[in-house]
Amino acid sequence: MIIQLNIRSPSHKRGARRAPLGRPALLALLALSLGAAPLAYAEPPPPAPPPPKPLTPKPFTLKRLYDRPNGVTDEERWAAAHGRGGGRRGAAESACLFPFVATALDARALVATVREGLDAPIVALYGAPLAGAAWAPVSAVALYAASGEELARVDLSAQLKALSAPDAHAVAYVHHALARDGALYVSVAHKTYARATGGDNARIYAYTARGAPLWRSPPLVSNAEGFLLVGDVLITGYGFTREPDLLYQLSRHTGEILAKTPLKSGPERLALDELGVLHVRTYDRDVGFQLSR
After folding, report:
1. DSSP-derived secondary structure for the chain
2. pTM for the whole thing?
3. Which of the four pLDDT bands, split at 50, 70 and 90, describes residue 7?
Protein backbone atom coordinates (compact mmCIF):
# COMPACT_ATOMS: atom_id res chain seq x y z
CA MET A 1 0.00 0.00 0.00
CA ILE A 2 1.34 3.42 -0.95
CA ILE A 3 0.21 6.43 1.02
CA GLN A 4 0.79 9.85 -0.44
CA LEU A 5 0.67 12.82 1.87
CA ASN A 6 -0.27 16.10 0.23
CA ILE A 7 -0.90 18.55 2.99
CA ARG A 8 -1.40 22.25 2.51
CA SER A 9 -2.05 24.89 5.07
CA PRO A 10 -5.13 27.14 4.54
CA SER A 11 -2.93 30.04 3.54
CA HIS A 12 -1.01 27.96 0.95
CA LYS A 13 -0.76 29.64 -2.40
CA ARG A 14 0.36 28.19 -5.69
CA GLY A 15 4.07 28.73 -6.20
CA ALA A 16 4.82 29.51 -2.55
CA ARG A 17 7.69 27.61 -0.93
CA ARG A 18 6.63 24.94 1.51
CA ALA A 19 8.28 24.73 4.91
CA PRO A 20 9.71 21.20 5.35
CA LEU A 21 8.12 19.03 7.97
CA GLY A 22 10.36 17.66 10.69
CA ARG A 23 10.69 13.94 11.36
CA PRO A 24 8.40 13.98 14.44
CA ALA A 25 5.59 15.65 12.43
CA LEU A 26 5.93 13.20 9.54
CA LEU A 27 5.73 10.22 11.90
CA ALA A 28 2.62 11.64 13.55
CA LEU A 29 0.88 12.27 10.20
CA LEU A 30 1.74 8.79 8.97
CA ALA A 31 0.25 7.25 12.10
CA LEU A 32 -2.97 9.30 11.74
CA SER A 33 -3.37 8.29 8.09
CA LEU A 34 -3.19 4.64 9.13
CA GLY A 35 -5.77 5.15 11.85
CA ALA A 36 -3.25 4.47 14.58
CA ALA A 37 -2.32 6.42 17.64
CA PRO A 38 0.45 8.93 17.03
CA LEU A 39 3.89 7.39 17.40
CA ALA A 40 6.00 8.65 20.25
CA TYR A 41 9.33 10.06 19.15
CA ALA A 42 12.19 10.66 21.47
CA GLU A 43 15.24 12.68 20.55
CA PRO A 44 18.46 10.65 20.89
CA PRO A 45 20.34 11.39 24.12
CA PRO A 46 23.21 13.86 23.80
CA PRO A 47 26.70 12.36 23.71
CA ALA A 48 28.34 11.85 27.09
CA PRO A 49 30.70 14.68 28.02
CA PRO A 50 34.40 13.82 28.06
CA PRO A 51 35.81 12.92 31.48
CA PRO A 52 37.19 15.93 33.31
CA LYS A 53 40.91 16.44 33.06
CA PRO A 54 42.78 16.07 36.37
CA LEU A 55 43.53 19.38 37.98
CA THR A 56 47.18 20.31 38.06
CA PRO A 57 48.12 20.65 41.75
CA LYS A 58 49.85 23.78 42.89
CA PRO A 59 53.42 22.96 43.99
CA PHE A 60 54.64 23.81 47.45
CA THR A 61 56.95 26.69 48.14
CA LEU A 62 60.10 25.37 49.83
CA LYS A 63 61.82 27.78 52.21
CA ARG A 64 65.26 26.52 53.18
CA LEU A 65 65.60 26.45 56.98
CA TYR A 66 68.98 24.77 57.38
CA ASP A 67 71.70 23.23 55.24
CA ARG A 68 74.61 21.73 57.13
CA PRO A 69 77.23 19.00 56.64
CA ASN A 70 76.59 15.54 58.04
CA GLY A 71 79.00 12.71 58.85
CA VAL A 72 78.24 10.81 55.61
CA THR A 73 78.03 7.50 57.53
CA ASP A 74 75.86 8.75 60.42
CA GLU A 75 72.55 7.59 58.95
CA GLU A 76 71.36 6.16 62.27
CA ARG A 77 71.64 9.59 63.88
CA TRP A 78 69.44 11.10 61.17
CA ALA A 79 66.96 8.22 61.37
CA ALA A 80 66.71 8.59 65.16
CA ALA A 81 65.86 12.27 64.74
CA HIS A 82 63.45 12.01 61.80
CA GLY A 83 62.48 8.36 61.46
CA ARG A 84 62.95 6.13 58.50
CA GLY A 85 59.73 7.38 56.97
CA GLY A 86 56.97 5.69 55.01
CA GLY A 87 55.91 3.19 57.71
CA ARG A 88 58.31 0.58 56.36
CA ARG A 89 58.83 -2.64 58.33
CA GLY A 90 61.07 -5.64 57.71
CA ALA A 91 59.86 -9.12 56.86
CA ALA A 92 59.93 -10.51 60.42
CA GLU A 93 57.98 -7.61 61.93
CA SER A 94 55.57 -7.61 58.99
CA ALA A 95 54.79 -11.31 59.50
CA CYS A 96 53.80 -10.60 63.11
CA LEU A 97 51.74 -7.47 62.40
CA PHE A 98 50.08 -8.64 59.19
CA PRO A 99 49.68 -12.44 59.26
CA PHE A 100 47.41 -12.30 56.21
CA VAL A 101 50.24 -10.99 54.01
CA ALA A 102 51.76 -13.76 51.89
CA THR A 103 55.35 -14.55 52.81
CA ALA A 104 56.21 -15.42 49.20
CA LEU A 105 55.02 -14.33 45.78
CA ASP A 106 56.01 -16.25 42.64
CA ALA A 107 59.31 -17.54 44.11
CA ARG A 108 60.05 -14.14 45.64
CA ALA A 109 60.31 -13.74 49.39
CA LEU A 110 58.67 -11.02 51.44
CA VAL A 111 61.22 -8.26 52.02
CA ALA A 112 59.19 -5.53 53.73
CA THR A 113 55.79 -3.90 54.06
CA VAL A 114 54.79 -0.24 53.89
CA ARG A 115 51.78 1.20 55.72
CA GLU A 116 51.18 4.89 56.37
CA GLY A 117 48.43 4.65 59.02
CA LEU A 118 46.05 2.36 60.90
CA ASP A 119 43.36 2.46 58.21
CA ALA A 120 45.74 2.65 55.28
CA PRO A 121 46.28 -0.25 52.87
CA ILE A 122 49.41 -2.38 53.23
CA VAL A 123 51.95 -2.61 50.42
CA ALA A 124 54.03 -5.80 50.51
CA LEU A 125 57.41 -5.82 48.74
CA TYR A 126 58.88 -9.06 47.34
CA GLY A 127 62.29 -9.91 45.92
CA ALA A 128 64.57 -12.78 44.94
CA PRO A 129 68.30 -12.82 45.76
CA LEU A 130 70.70 -12.17 42.91
CA ALA A 131 73.19 -14.91 42.05
CA GLY A 132 76.18 -14.57 44.37
CA ALA A 133 74.62 -11.62 46.22
CA ALA A 134 73.31 -11.36 49.75
CA TRP A 135 70.52 -8.88 49.00
CA ALA A 136 67.19 -9.40 47.25
CA PRO A 137 66.19 -6.51 44.99
CA VAL A 138 62.44 -5.93 45.19
CA SER A 139 60.71 -6.75 41.89
CA ALA A 140 57.03 -7.24 42.78
CA VAL A 141 54.46 -5.72 45.11
CA ALA A 142 51.10 -6.81 46.48
CA LEU A 143 48.44 -4.52 47.89
CA TYR A 144 46.21 -5.47 50.82
CA ALA A 145 43.23 -3.64 52.27
CA ALA A 146 43.30 -2.85 55.99
CA SER A 147 40.78 -5.70 56.42
CA GLY A 148 43.33 -8.18 55.03
CA GLU A 149 41.77 -8.62 51.58
CA GLU A 150 44.34 -8.91 48.82
CA LEU A 151 43.57 -6.22 46.24
CA ALA A 152 46.29 -6.52 43.64
CA ARG A 153 49.61 -8.02 42.63
CA VAL A 154 51.97 -6.08 40.39
CA ASP A 155 54.97 -7.75 38.77
CA LEU A 156 57.50 -5.08 37.83
CA SER A 157 59.94 -7.35 36.00
CA ALA A 158 59.38 -5.58 32.67
CA GLN A 159 59.97 -2.15 34.21
CA LEU A 160 63.11 -3.36 35.96
CA LYS A 161 64.46 -4.85 32.74
CA ALA A 162 63.84 -1.60 30.86
CA LEU A 163 65.79 0.38 33.49
CA SER A 164 68.69 -2.09 33.85
CA ALA A 165 71.87 -2.82 31.88
CA PRO A 166 74.53 -5.58 31.76
CA ASP A 167 76.66 -3.48 34.10
CA ALA A 168 76.47 -5.21 37.49
CA HIS A 169 75.74 -1.87 39.15
CA ALA A 170 72.89 -1.00 36.78
CA VAL A 171 70.37 -3.37 38.37
CA ALA A 172 67.06 -1.60 38.82
CA TYR A 173 64.84 -2.47 41.76
CA VAL A 174 61.84 -1.10 43.63
CA HIS A 175 63.10 1.50 46.09
CA HIS A 176 59.81 2.36 47.74
CA ALA A 177 56.04 2.07 47.32
CA LEU A 178 52.99 3.49 49.04
CA ALA A 179 49.23 3.40 48.55
CA ARG A 180 46.60 6.02 49.25
CA ASP A 181 43.13 6.96 48.03
CA GLY A 182 42.78 4.06 45.64
CA ALA A 183 46.17 4.38 43.95
CA LEU A 184 49.54 2.66 44.29
CA TYR A 185 52.81 4.51 43.64
CA VAL A 186 56.10 2.68 43.05
CA SER A 187 59.60 4.07 42.51
CA VAL A 188 62.02 2.04 40.37
CA ALA A 189 65.70 2.90 39.87
CA HIS A 190 69.25 1.60 39.70
CA LYS A 191 72.15 3.11 41.63
CA THR A 192 74.68 4.12 39.01
CA TYR A 193 75.12 6.69 36.26
CA ALA A 194 72.04 7.44 34.19
CA ARG A 195 74.10 7.02 31.01
CA ALA A 196 74.44 3.29 31.82
CA THR A 197 70.83 2.89 30.66
CA GLY A 198 70.68 5.67 28.09
CA GLY A 199 69.30 8.18 30.57
CA ASP A 200 66.24 6.05 31.32
CA ASN A 201 66.23 5.52 35.08
CA ALA A 202 64.53 6.48 38.30
CA ARG A 203 60.84 6.67 37.44
CA ILE A 204 57.65 6.60 39.49
CA TYR A 205 54.91 4.23 38.27
CA ALA A 206 51.27 4.63 39.33
CA TYR A 207 48.58 1.92 39.40
CA THR A 208 44.98 1.62 40.50
CA ALA A 209 44.20 -0.29 43.68
CA ARG A 210 43.47 -3.30 41.43
CA GLY A 211 46.84 -3.10 39.71
CA ALA A 212 45.89 -1.43 36.41
CA PRO A 213 48.56 1.00 35.10
CA LEU A 214 47.76 4.71 35.38
CA TRP A 215 50.92 6.58 34.37
CA ARG A 216 54.70 6.69 34.62
CA SER A 217 56.74 9.76 35.42
CA PRO A 218 59.53 11.25 33.33
CA PRO A 219 62.93 9.63 33.99
CA LEU A 220 65.53 10.74 36.53
CA VAL A 221 63.15 11.96 39.22
CA SER A 222 63.37 9.36 42.02
CA ASN A 223 66.35 7.32 43.18
CA ALA A 224 66.23 8.25 46.87
CA GLU A 225 65.28 5.39 49.20
CA GLY A 226 61.82 6.86 49.71
CA PHE A 227 59.36 9.47 48.53
CA LEU A 228 56.45 11.32 50.12
CA LEU A 229 52.84 11.98 49.15
CA VAL A 230 51.67 15.33 50.53
CA GLY A 231 48.14 16.14 49.43
CA ASP A 232 48.14 15.86 45.64
CA VAL A 233 51.91 16.22 45.34
CA LEU A 234 54.57 13.51 45.29
CA ILE A 235 57.90 14.74 46.67
CA THR A 236 60.84 12.76 45.31
CA GLY A 237 64.60 13.12 45.06
CA TYR A 238 67.22 12.31 42.44
CA GLY A 239 70.97 12.70 42.26
CA PHE A 240 74.24 11.01 41.44
CA THR A 241 77.91 11.83 40.96
CA ARG A 242 78.32 14.49 38.26
CA GLU A 243 74.57 14.57 37.69
CA PRO A 244 72.02 17.16 38.88
CA ASP A 245 70.95 16.74 42.52
CA LEU A 246 67.32 17.79 42.85
CA LEU A 247 64.11 17.53 44.81
CA TYR A 248 61.08 17.09 42.56
CA GLN A 249 57.40 17.77 43.04
CA LEU A 250 55.16 15.63 40.83
CA SER A 251 51.41 15.59 40.27
CA ARG A 252 49.94 12.47 41.85
CA HIS A 253 47.32 12.44 39.07
CA THR A 254 49.61 12.42 36.03
CA GLY A 255 53.24 12.21 37.18
CA GLU A 256 54.10 15.51 35.50
CA ILE A 257 56.88 17.59 37.07
CA LEU A 258 55.51 20.59 38.96
CA ALA A 259 58.71 22.02 40.47
CA LYS A 260 62.41 21.34 41.04
CA THR A 261 64.63 22.41 43.93
CA PRO A 262 68.44 22.10 43.62
CA LEU A 263 70.52 20.41 46.30
CA LYS A 264 74.27 20.37 46.93
CA SER A 265 74.51 16.55 46.84
CA GLY A 266 72.30 13.59 46.04
CA PRO A 267 69.20 13.08 48.23
CA GLU A 268 68.98 9.75 50.05
CA ARG A 269 66.10 9.99 52.54
CA LEU A 270 63.08 12.25 53.05
CA ALA A 271 60.90 12.85 56.10
CA LEU A 272 58.07 15.29 56.84
CA ASP A 273 57.32 16.34 60.41
CA GLU A 274 54.05 17.52 61.97
CA LEU A 275 55.03 21.18 61.49
CA GLY A 276 55.33 20.79 57.73
CA VAL A 277 59.12 20.77 57.71
CA LEU A 278 60.65 18.57 55.03
CA HIS A 279 63.90 17.01 56.25
CA VAL A 280 66.24 15.74 53.54
CA ARG A 281 69.33 13.65 54.11
CA THR A 282 71.72 13.89 51.18
CA TYR A 283 75.03 12.13 50.67
CA ASP A 284 76.96 14.61 52.84
CA ARG A 285 74.45 17.20 54.05
CA ASP A 286 71.28 17.53 56.13
CA VAL A 287 68.78 20.01 54.70
CA GLY A 288 65.43 21.29 55.98
CA PHE A 289 62.64 23.09 54.13
CA GLN A 290 59.40 24.65 55.35
CA LEU A 291 56.52 23.68 53.05
CA SER A 292 53.90 26.32 52.33
CA ARG A 293 51.50 27.47 49.62
Report:
1. ---------TT--TTPPPPPPPHHHHHHHHHHHTT-PPPP--PPPPPPPPPPPPPPPPPPEEEEEEEEE--SS-HHHHHHHH---TTEEEHHHHHHH-TTS-SEETTEEEEEEE-SSTTS-EEEEEE-PPTT-S---EEEEEEE-TTS-EEEEEE-HHHHHHT--SSTT---EEEEEEEETTEEEEEEE-SS-GGGGTT---EEEEEETTS-EEEEPPSSS--SS--EEETTEEEEEE--TTS--EEEEEETTT--EEEEEE-SS-EEEEEE-TTSEEEEEESSEEEEEEEE-
2. 0.80
3. very low
State yes or no: pLDDT of 112 exceeds 70. Answer: yes
pLDDT value at residue 27? 57
Look at residue 46 and tell me if it is in a domain. no
Domain count, the chain: 1
- Say which CATH number the domain at 242 has: 2.40.128.630
Residue 248 domain-assigned (yes or no): yes
Residue among 121, 227, 223 at smallest CA distance from 182:
121
For 37, residues 6+ apart whose C-beta sits below 8 A from its C-beta are 31
Instruction: Tell me the C-alpha distance between 18 and 13, whole Å.
Output: 10
pLDDT of res. 41: 58
30-39 pLDDT, tens digit each: 556 666 555 5
Mean pLDDT of 91-106: 95
Rounded mean pLDDT of 258-273?
97
Q: How many CB atoms lie within 10 A of CB 227?
A: 25
